[in-house]
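Structural prep section.
Before we set up the soaks we want a predicted structure of the protein with zinc ion in place, mainly to decide which crystallisation condition to try first. Input record follows.
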Amino acid sequence: MRRNYRKVAASVALLLLLWLLINVVFQDSEPKSLHIGDKVDVYSLMKMEDEVMKLSVQHLDDSDSNFIKSSIKESSYNSLNMMTFSALDKFPRDGVISWNEYLTDFLMKLGVSLDGTKEKTDEAAKALNRTMKEEIMGLKAAWFESVRGDPDRLNIDEFLAFRHPEQSHSFLLKIVEDVANILDTNGDGVLNLGEFTELKLDDVSMDNFALRSLFDKDLKTLFKVVDIDGKGTVNRQELLAYLDMRNPIHARREARRLVQTADSDRNGRVSANEAVNKGPEFLACRWFNPDGFQKSFMCTKFTKRDILFIMDYVASLRKNKRTTLERMEKFISTELFTDVNLHGQRYSAEKAVTDLSHWAGKDSEKDWRKYPFSIASVQTFKPVNIGDSFGPTWATHWFKVIIDIPESWKGETVHLIWNSSTEALLWSEDGKVVQGFSCVDEPGREYYVLAENFAPTDSRRVYFIEMACNGSFGAGANAIGPPDMKKEFKLEICKIAVFNKSAYSLAMDLEILASLAREDPSDGFTAHKALFTGNHMLNLMQAGKTDEAHKVAKEFFKDKQSKSLDFTVVAVGNCHIDSAWLWPVRETIRKCARSFSNAIRLMELYPEFIFVASQAQQFEWIKDYYPSLFTEIKGRVKEGRFVPVGGTWVEMDGNIPSGEAYVRHFLLGQKFFLEEFGKKCSEFWLPDTFGYSAQIPQILQHVGISNFLTQKISWNVVNKFPHHSFVWEGLDGSTVLSHFPPSNSYTDRVKVANVVELVKNYSDKGRASQAIMLYGFGDGGGGATQDMLERRRRLENIPGYPKLKPGVPSEVFDQLAKESKNLCRWVGELYLEMHNGTYTTQATIKKQNRRCEELLRNVELLLAMLVVHESVDEKLLKKWQGIVTVAWKKLLLNQFHDILPGSSIEMVNVDAREAFEEISNNVGKVFQEISERFFGTGRDGNLLLNTLAWKRRNVVKIPRGGNTRHVNVNEQSAQQDDQGTFIVVEAPQMSVVQLLQQPMPEISVKTEKLQNGNFVLSNAFLRAEIDTYGRITSTKLSGSSKDAICQESKLANSICIYDDIPLFWDAWDVMDYHLETRKILNAPNVEGVKMKPARILQNGPLVSAVEWEMSFGNGSKLSQRIILDAESPYLIFETNVDWKESHKILKAEFPLNVLARNATYEIQYGHVERPTHANTSWDWAKYEVVGHRWADMSECGFGVSLLSECKYGWSSDGNKLSLSLLRAPKSPDANADIGAHAFKYALMPHAGTFQSANVIQRAHEFNQPLKILHGAARLGKLAGAESSWIEVDQRAVILDAVKLSDNFKTHRAVVLRFYESFGSHVPLTNVTLHFPVKAVTACNGLEEPLKSGGLKLNSHGASTSFAVDFKPFQIQSFLVELF
Ligand SMILES: [Zn+2]
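Run finished without errors. Recording the tokens verbatim:
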């Protein structure tokens, strides 16, 4: 009953509508709003339908019910069921709608509300009373019939069945059964042509409306259509597929067949005329049906005019979003359907190069620099073929390519396409860098634009191509695996081709439209508009109307003003080039050339393109190796389009470099940028580094930078960092404006997904109105690509999306500065909850780095002393300064964020160790030369150099033999061993003095053996008990009964080994779960451990030592001397390890007798506290942390420090403080840390605070022993000889660097850099300089005088002093001008 009622109503509506359309729109007169051939999109269709409805309603009598009106409206919207559903599916958009939602909407359209109360007019209410009750009952019955599950959760398929009962699956099945029962006369289960055409309409019940309309056709033609598999019979599935309008497979197959039959000119498309000629059969195909709307036409006869209308009609979207979307995506796929899609049309013609020949230098894999262009290009090149392979890994192959562009390509855009499965660099015939080629997965830089508008006068070209046998990320077997050194790389493509700009542009349009439709999280209007637009474009393209497709796209992407979000994303091109990582440093030089030249070429095509690059070192390489490219870059820098950022020498590690090294990164970096480009960088740029020291904000302030960009904290494993734009407050309270690009990446592709992700992630919505998107392939990928720039243009103004504009980072920071009062503040370090193994991996490199940092400090100090007191030949000074500067650059390069942390391949580590060795040798030689120049070559005595600005009394060892034999030693107060003599010496603050032996201290150092087999080492400061396993069972300060060692365990200096198997990043990560695998090695009865118990090695009076040894694990050995000297308040653990483990971490653990909720760790110019507990997730993520020379656990009045000479990984847990000693990762360096290691650490219990107990000073001393110099004859030249050179009267203030000013030649000054080390305000710190001084001016880290930085000087004879105030942890630098 219900179905009949609905059907009659629907029929009335459909017929009425049809009649009206045909009469009103097509026959009566020309329609007002629509002409044949007009382009109609779905919105104007809706408008038109409204017009039709209005007209039709005028023809109705007043007595006609509202129901008829609404039926007309409903049926005219049949094609929009999807949209109706979408509109009804209110928040949360879960893909289902309820009966109430539907009914409310239905009634609202009629102006009444659900409870029947009057909303608009009395008439409406009356109409409801008269007719609606019945209608609602009918609708409700239909609703419940279409429901398969929950009636309040109707999904789209159920909804369609409700709106089109004749399309519901069960109904269609019934029709199929009816047809089969009636027609299958021979009962074989299928219908042959005879049976099929036997159908008489009379046989079909009047009730079977759909079936009647099906057979009201030319049955022979229909049979062919229904017989999908073409077997000459129709089975039930085929019949069902035909009847089901939503079956896309059928529709596509049918369309393909019909296009083949109708395509009379065989151009692959069916034009309107061809369709007209084909006539009714074509129209039987639903491919072109505008859904239900056109279905009404199916029942009638067609005029040519009708057909033309249908062909020009903008096909509205079929009901299935997925098929439409995928249709678009397949049309631009680089893999599927390329025979017919746009990607297949990317090039309209192609041609082989005229000649391709090859030359390779011998052993080029060792270093490409042996064969630069000037040598390679003049060699004899021999012919090679596409498909040939070249190797091995890291080798270089040169190709000469001769090209003849055909005359017929006049006016075309012509590409040279190259793919050698490697990175490669294109050179002009005259030796200029042209452009890099990359080999990334996505379309990147596989082509070079030979001509934008080819002129045949310029048809022959000759180029050289330098192929580097490595991929973008080296040549590892997996992402971070060690490289396969024997890889061969295939030359895949070398040809020229005509670039089809139109096809490319349409492909980019479709890509963006499809992405907008797919990625829009709200599935809102923009997504649907994009889907309709893309679909429309496809139909136009398939109809051969490419120009119109372009227009449709242009209309979509045009600036619609003010409809975008009130949020701007500044898109910044970049290319994060790791200065070494999965490839050696030398390959980075070429990576820079390839990527930077790509950027320069793109700038020629895209005037809006802006590219940023960091790391002065990389620019210097370009300057040295590729001068023509450097000139081009300089030009673009001037234009403001190639923008140097960062201000540093390289993007360094954020944890391990010393404070002074940090300053030098800026000093050398900014100096380079200023000299070469006339401008310093305005932001610190460190997107990829593994954690950020709490001292960075102050260091930045000290070098004049107030902005900082990174994103790495988004890699946190435990806690999500709460901000993207914020004020970062450092250790001393200095602040820096910080921004993390919210897409949490620096290699975006400018895809819709990147924008969506960015908006979704941005955690400071409302606080700030701009953000940065960093796009471009990193490392070997070549930076930005044409695709990315095309995408940005299209995404500039999309309604509902942020404005996406090209720009420079400083724009965003300027805006952030204006909004800074809104921003939140983060205080303290930016600790990365990941990659915490990098404080320990590659132990040798870390040790060399520490030693070189100190050596450079010392050589600069000695040079300053010399220059202050003697006139030094300018040439000699220049030579020394040159060597020191080169050494600094080398050191800074090796502080790069994959070298110093230890996350590089073995080649890089070998190179780094050599580089540090070279620094050590070269600087050591300069040190020696300065010393000789200063003090003579000396058989005339020995000197003592104290590089620290406090008085020291230490035991030193005078090696046997050599120049030191001239030291007068009183054997009574000395101690001998095999290699030399120990004596006590004293040195004033920062001084060079005659080496003089001091009398024996009152209390000497002793070693005793106790009855229980333990040993005791004691001196004037402490008493330590050691068991036979080398463990410290007790340590007490002299005269105190308080033990520093936890007496429950008595196991300090336990050497523990843990399994160390990270989630993925082998060299980088030590995961929290390693803590669950602890095994103490130096304990009784440990399986696999062989102990050589402790024995006395030395027994005073100046030095005492106990020695023990063990072998363990995979054949590893550890031996340790536990040493105490008479003048030392700390116990030294001098350790040698032969390390042979795999995926293990070794630590020394100290359970202490201290209650401390925080442990303190030294960092650059200060120290930070971190929790010893895991209360919060932020606390527990800090299970492995970084520290420099010391760490401390203290309670009131007492504490214990550990001093470290080259280790940086620490952990604290309750009362246990541990130092990480060695790791054994296998990727990317399979031999990481395997072999011999020598290192020292020390245990220092103390009374009071670590500040009052001089822990900071002792840690410096532990790292910088007094130096013995030879020769003394000319010591007198040093003013203030035998006393201090520089004195500082406050222990809290540390004089960290003394150096000649960077521009010493023009500005004769010495730079002094201090920091406050206790975390206290120190007013009026007096600094006394024992040499003649003209003036002292406060300066910044770049050695630029500060405004009103001049200081008041006090002179006393040959000495000068000045007083300054220090704030907690404050860094201050001064220029001391010399006469
Ligand atoms: Zn990196």
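Observations: The two ends are 113 Å apart (CA to CA).
Flagged for discussion at group meeting.
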